[in-house]
Write a structure and sequence with these properties.
Blueprint (H helix, E strand, L loop, with lengths): L14 E4 L7 E6 L1 H4 L8 E6 L5 E5 L3 E3 L4 H4 L6 H17 L7 H9 L7 H10 L8 E2 L8 E2 L2 H6 L12 H19 L5 H8 L2 H8 L20 E2 L6 E2 L1 H10 L21 E3 L8 E3 H8 L1 H9 L25 H8 L8 H7 L6 E6 L5 H9 L3 E7 L3 H10 L5 E2 L8 H7 L4 E4 L25 H16 L6 E7 L4 H11 L4 E4 L9 E6 L37 E3 L24 E3 L2 E3 L3 H7 L14 H10 L3 H8 L15
Parallel strand pairs: 12-13, 12-15, 13-14, 15-16
Antiparallel strand pairs: 1-2, 1-5, 2-3, 3-4, 6-7, 8-9, 10-11, 16-18, 17-18, 19-20, 20-21
């Protein structure tokens, strides 16, 4: 049986392997720049659409290999479900092109391993006529890991159809390309820096003045260098100013982290596009091609692309980048915190409560989950009169009942709580809750937003309705303290809606200041001292070097098992089990007896602030327990927020901590 002879010349529609930075070889398809709304690829480079990831990157030809001829060398087993799903998509496209019949993904993989054998001779002949045989255009570098693929540039120039639309682009790929094109079109219309605007930015009168030294960086917006914009504040990460529009965009995107653990937008200009990622396993920062080229120069940018690994400005010695125009701020973490700082200080509520006779606190917890609020109040030793909860996940309810037997009263689904139910449990002193964040998170491409009632976004309005109803029923003599939480990587429009209804801006608190997990969250509330009780980032020294024992992963691993941490801190744990795998699914956070290993659930419970086996209830699987933890709050954060209630307004137990 003969092998199907694939094209030996790169063209739009070619199925390829691509190598981006330190990431593994990943399957993709060459696409037309017009279809994605981006500039034409640079000389000797191509736009690659990544299967499984559904994003695009510009790659030089040396980082591209034909999928079929390099399959045996570049395909690796057991490297992760995401990678395998991407490979399956590429194989499905090839099978469709060459009329190969299959019943399952296993058949496709077997077909590929055997060298893409054609089902019959006629099929081979037909496809040979369909594809041009240009043997010799591709030279594979003879190294054990296939580092380079060289395509003569003179042959690329002679290819007339390289930038034309190809009928070989699958419909599902075209659908994603249309989405990417729409995003880039909107960004362009909003005067956002794309690769096209980078050249204009480079020629901006303000940038020219900055390079000459006649204008200070602090007086211009270093994100856009707009001629008609003013710097209203200072960039939190780098020396220089920032305009209002770019500041709001930065607040929206700075904590938007993709499934690979890296920022989905540039940390300088806050825009998506082709990104250069820091290769440090403890760093999530990404930088767009334009900003690197603008600040460091084209030659340095290409040097960075060649470097493996490349460590960004925050991960190398501070003095190493002082000759660049771009300089980081040594106190960037404090400045990032101030970017989300509340302008209102709630001291009135404290004085009102202080004048009352102390009595046990009455709490209503919406979206209660595994009762982090109850556990935090107990840790503070605050005496609870009644703890009411709304939760619909039976597994979460069972966990709470096991750990807090007889002390939680459930009042049902939040969407079915009417005024009569609220009136029956009033007065309420403290209302807490955080609605599901999936439909509000910027990194979720299928998010439905805050207004789509087919999703979970509108549940915020149920929280708001209950909050206002309690305030009315409580009366003036019983002020209500409230706390609402949601994801930090929220779209600006959704955050503005929540802030408008609650009549306050949120503050940012990251659990990495109290534990070994990076978990940035936004909090709205009138808890006394919520924005004053502590500078969260004072515990972190310059360069993000973690030194506090509570912030190191190794301190949470069970002793006596030869378990060692491979990272200082883990990234945000979500309901996706792959969120526990670090560095683009390449690195497990623990080594045990010299072998890579996952975090044990008991260790994960400790990181969240719970005692070991807190979620070990009934016949819950490990995945379900991890999922419940991924939906919960970080208890050390909640303890620090509610700490001001300890001993001031409500009675406490003796020496709780």
């Amino acid at each position: 049986m003969a092998s199907i002879r694939m094209e030996q010349k790169l063209s739009i529609g070619s199925i390829v392997w691509g190598k981006l930075g330190s990431f593994k070889w990943w399957p993709g398809i060459l696409v037309n720049y017009i279809d994605i709304g981006l500039p034409k690829a640079k000389f000797g480079s191509f736009w690659v659409f990544w299967f499984g990831d559904y994003k695009v990157s510009q790659l030089p030809t040396k980082n591209i290999a034909f999928f079929t001829s390099s399959f045996k060398q570049l395909y690796k087993k057991n490297v992760g479900k995401c990678h395998q799903a991407a490979v399956n998509e590429a194989l499905e496209v090839l099978a469709t092109r060459f009329d190969y019949c299959y019943k399952s993904p296993k058949d496709l993989l077997l077909w590929a391993v055997k060298g893409f054998k054609a089902p019959d001779t006629s099929s081979v002949q037909g496809n040979e006529n369909k594809k041009t045989d240009l043997t010799g255009y591709l030279t594979l570098k003879a190294t054990y890991n296939i580092k380079e693929v060289i395509v003569p540039l003179i042959d690329i120039m002679k290819t007339p159809d390289l930038q034309k639309h190809s009928p070989d682009i699958p419909p599902f790929v075209l659908k994603h390309l249309q989405r990417i094109q729409n995003i880039n079109k909107k960004l362009s219309e909003a005067h956002i820096s794309t690769p096209v605007i980078a050249e204009k930015k480079n020629l901006s009168p303000k940038f020219v003045q900055v390079k000459k030294g006649s204008l200070k960086l602090q007086d211009v917006c270093i994100a856009c260098f707009g001629s008609n914009v003013e710097a209203v504040s200072q960039h939190p990460l780098f020396e220089g100013g920032i305009c209002l529009k770019c500041q709001e965009l930065l607040k929206e995107t700075i904590f938007a982290v993709g499934s690979d653990g890296k920022n989905v937008c540039c940390v300088i200009c806050a825009h998506p596009g082709s990104l250069i990622l820091c290769d440090s396993i403890n760093c999530s920062r990404s930088y767009c091609f334009d900003c690197i080229g603008l600040w460091l120069g084209e030659e340095t940018r290409f040097e960075i692309l060649e470097r493996n690994p490349w460590l960004c400005f925050f991960c190398v010695h501070q003095n190493s980048n002082q000759h660049y125009l771009l300089k980081i701020k040594l106190d960037w973490e404090k400045r990032l915190q101030f970017l989300f700082q509340q302008s209102t200080v709630f001291v009135d509520e404290l004085s009102k409560l202080s004048n009352q006779i102390k009595r046990p606190i009455r709490v209503l917890s919406l979206f209660d989950g595994i009762s982090t609020g109850k556990a935090a109040l107990d840790s503070l030793g605050i005496v609870i009169d009644q703890y009411y909860a709304s939760e619909i996940d039976e597994s979460a309810i069972n966990v709470s009942k096991l750990n807090h037997p007889g002390s939680i009263i459930y009042i049902g689904d939040i969407t079915k709580i009417d005024e009569s139910k609220i009136e029956a449990i009033c007065p309420i002193d403290l209302l807490i809750g955080g609605s599901p964040c999936n439909d509000l998170s910027l990194v979720n491409p299928k998010r439905k937003g805050i207004y789509d009632f087919s999703g979970t976004g509108p549940l915020f309005f149920d929280y708001f309705h209950i909050c206002k109803t309690i305030e009315r029923l409580n009366g003036r003599n019983n002020p209500l303290l409230f706390l609402f939480e949601n994801v930090a990587s929220m779209r600006l429009v959704d955050k503005s809606v929540i802030s408008s209804f609650l009549m306050m801006e949120p503050i940012l608190i990251d659990a990495k200041s109290f534990s070994a997990q990076s978990r940035p969250r936004l909090f709205w509330g009138n808890i006394p001292g919520i924005s004053l009780y502590r500078d969260f980032y004072d515990v972190l020294p310059i360069n993000n070097v973690v030194k506090e024992p509570c912030q190191l992963l190794g301190g949470y691993l069970l002793e006596g098992f030869e378990r060692k941490a491979t990272v200082a801190q883990i990234r945000t744990v979500t309901t996706n089990k792959n969120s526990l795998i670090q560095d683009n699914y390449n690195l497990l956070p623990v080594e045990m007896n010299g072998e890579p290993d996952q975090l044990w659930i008991t260790e994960l419970e400790k990181i969240f602030g719970f005692p070991p086996h807190y979620t070990d209830t009934g016949n819950l699987t490990l995945n379900k327990r991890r999922e419940l933890l991924g939906k919960s709050w970080s208890m050390p954060v909640i303890i620090n927020i509610l700490r001001s209630l300890h001993g001031q307004q409500f009675p406490v137990y003796e020496a709780p901590f």
